[in-house]
């Protein structure tokens, strides 16, 4: 988004600052620095401060305006999504296991109350 904002005047770039995400590594200070960048070299200098974003610009030398490699973005996002899914999968498994154990205990309580009241329990 920063590359697209470079072609606009400074006043409209501050409007784009509101569109930046409110999470991630370059929050607040990084966004402010990116907003005042006037050319691609300044963007490179700001992004180099954040290690996760350095590989994006390693293929480009200073002053180049070529399009960034979409495959690199897709690979990075796939790795991030995989890690998110794996992390959520781990917590979801524990949460689900606990919930299933709670349901199992409720079922056992229901069966024990039926037995105590001499009621027939239908089903398995």
Automatic annotation (TrEMBL):
Ranges in coiled-coil conformation: none
GO cellular component, one term: proton-transporting V-type ATPase, V0 domain
One Pfam family here: vATP-synt_AC39
GO molecular function: proton-transporting ATPase activity, rotational mechanism
Protein's UniProt keywords contain NAD: no
Keywords: Membrane, Transmembrane, Transmembrane helix
Transmembrane found in the keyword field: yes
Listed transmembrane segments: 79-100
Protein name: V-type proton ATPase subunit d1-like
Species this chain originates from: Ananas comosus (Pineapple)
